[in-house]
Amino acid sequence: MSESSDRAEAKLSSLNWILQHPMYQHMMNLEVGDSAQVHAAFLAYMDLSEVRQWKEVLAVRSSELQLVLLEGREKEGAPMQTILPLPVHRSLSHRSIRHVLDRGSPMLLCAVASDSTLVYQRMTDGLVTPDPPAGPFQDLGRRQHRKRRHQH
């Protein structure tokens, strides 16, 4: 009997590893009042720090927005970036984006889906010219793109 209860406890413990993680507990202690946003912030934290190997990833509280923001460096010596993690069902206002951009560091919006899929979008203050496409391209000219009319 005790062996089965030990297995059940171990299974429950493995399911609750997020709740026991020190960074998750730190985020909960920031008291933003939105557990879904805290969960989204934690998933973004794990992705950035463990998968993408970002440096100095920290969780900070935004009192104005009542959100957990992340700050980190994409690589050693890179500028600090602010990440705004949000569940996909949560709406976002221009004021919220402006507040994060006004912090002075580059901003990433991280949309977190219910299946834990993360999508990052770089946000800028104003328009940014895109980088040119990479790769060897050849201009084929207009004639080769037109469809030929077949006469019957």
Separation, N- and C-terminal Cα atoms: 85 Å
Task: Assign the structural class, choosing from mainly alpha, mainly beta, alpha/beta, alpha+beta, or little secondary structure.
Answer: alpha+beta
Q: Indicate the low-confidence ranges by residue numbers.
A: none
β-strand number: 5
Arithmetic mean pLDDT: 87
Secondary-structure element string: HHHHEEEHEE
Based on CA inertia axes, which overall geometry fits?
A: globular
Strand order of the largest sheet: 1-2-3-4-5
Largest sheet: 5 strands, mixed
State Rg. 23 Å
| Helix content range | 25-40%
Question: In percent terms, what proportion of residues is strand?
Answer: 15-25%
Number of helices: 5
Which key phrases capture this entry?
globular; five-stranded mixed beta sheet; 34% helix; single chain; 152 residues; alpha+beta
Describe the structure.
There is one protein chain. The protein has a five-stranded mixed beta sheet, with helices on both faces. The protein is globular. It is α+β, with helices and mostly antiparallel strands and 152 residues long. The chain is built from five helices and five strands. The N and C termini lie far apart (85 Å). The model has no long low-confidence stretch (mean pLDDT 87). The chain has helices at 2-15, 17-20, 22-29, 35-51, 94-101; strands spanning 55-62, 67-73, 80-87, 107-112, 118-123. A hairpin with a 6-residue loop joins β2 and β3 (80-87).
